[in-house]
UniProtKB/TrEMBL annotation:
GO terms for molecular function: DNA binding; DNA-binding transcription factor activity. Keywords: DNA-binding, Transcription, Transcription regulation. Gene3D superfamilies: GntR ligand-binding domain-like (1.20.120.530), Winged helix-like DNA-binding domain superfamily/Winged helix DNA-binding domain (1.10.10.10). It comes from Subtercola vilae. Residues 9-76 form the HTH gntR-type domain. This is GntR family transcriptional regulator.
C-alpha cells in the first residue's frame, strides 16, 4: 500500500496529484474503472478524501462519472482532440510570442538548455523521459513568457491529451521532427522575433495534432468494437 505523507500538502491535494499522475502516465488508462475502496486502501486515506479527489479530477475532465458504473478515467473523443489542440495551439503560440518579446537572457538560456536535453534524449527515444523533458521545456517557455496563467491552462490541456502524447511520440521519426520544430521556436525567441516564434509554435502543434487525430480516430473505432469497454482497477471487497 502506498500511504500518503501526512504533512506538507493536505491529503486531498496529495490524493488528487497521485491519481492525476497515474492518469497522465497511462498507469490508469482511458475508461478504467476507479474503485473508491481500492483507492482508499492504496492511498491510506478515508473514503471522503478519495471522493473529494475524484470530484476535483472530474472538474478537470480527467475523470467521468459513468451511470451505473461510477468513476472512470475519461476517454477522449475525436472532437475532444480537435478542441483541445485548438486551445493548445492558442496557448503555446501566445507563450512563444511573449517569450520572444520579453524573455530575459537567463530565461532564454533555460529554454535553450531544455531543448538541448530533449535533443539528446530524442536520439534514444525513451518516451517517458522525453515527455518529462518536454514538460521542462514548456516550464521554461512559460517562465519566459511572464504569464503564469498560460501555464496553468496549458497544464490542464496537456494532462487531458496525455493519453495521446506518448503514442504520437512513438510515431516513426516523430522525436527527430519534434526537435527540429522546437529548434525553430527557440531560434525565433533568441532573435526576438515574436511573429516567427508564434508561427513556429503553431506549426509544431499542428503536426502533433495531425498525428493525434489519426490516433484518436483509430481509438474511437477500436472502442466501438469492444464488448465491455470498462476496464476495472479491481473489484471492491
Amino acid at each position: 500500500m502506498m500511504a500518503l505523507i501526512r504533512q506538507a500538502a493536505p491529503l486531498r491535494v496529495q490524493a488528487v496529484n497521485h491519481i492525476r499522475s497515474k492518469i497522465v502516465s497511462g498507469d490508469f488508462p482511458p475508461r478504467m474503472r476507479l474503485i473508491e475502496k481500492r483507492l482508499e486502501e492504496e492511498l491510506g486515506v478515508s473514503r471522503t478524501v478519495v471522493r473529494e479527489a475524484l470530484r476535483q479530477l472530474e472538474s478537470e475532465r480527467l475523470v467521468t462519472m459513468e451511470a451505473n458504473v461510477g468513476p472512470i478515467v475519461s476517454a477522449l473523443s475525436y472532437d475532444d482532440v480537435v478542441h483541445l489542440y485548438q486551445v493548445r495551439a492558442t496557448l503555446e503560440s501566445a507563450a512563444g510570442r511573449l517569450a520572444a518579446e520579453s524573455g530575459t537572457s537567463v530565461q532564454i538560456e533555460r529554454i535553450q538548455a531544455a531543448l538541448a536535453a530533449i535533443r539528446t534524449e530524442a536520439e534514444r527515444v525513451e518516451i517517458p523521459m522525453l515527455i518529462e523533458l518536454k514538460n521542462d521545456f514548456y516550464t521554461a517557455l512559460i517562465d519566459a513568457s511572464g504569464n503564469p496563467i498560460i501555464g496553468e491552462m496549458l497544464s490542464n490541456v496537456q494532462a487531458r491529451i496525455s493519453q495521446l502524447r506518448a503514442l504520437t511520440l512513438h510515431s516513426e521519426g516523430r522525436a527527430r521532427h519534434m526537435v527540429a520544430e522546437l529548434t525553430r521556436v527557440v531560434d525565433a525567441i533568441e532573435q526576438g522575433d515574436p511573429d516567427r516564434a508564434e508561427e513556429a509554435c503553431r506549426a509544431h502543434v499542428a503536426v502533433a495534432e495531425k498525428i493525434a487525430l489519426r490516433l484518436a480516430g483509430a481509438l474511437d473505432e477500436a472502442e466501438s468494437d469492444l464488448q465491455n469497454p470498462i476496464e476495472s482497477m479491481g473489484t471492491a471487497s
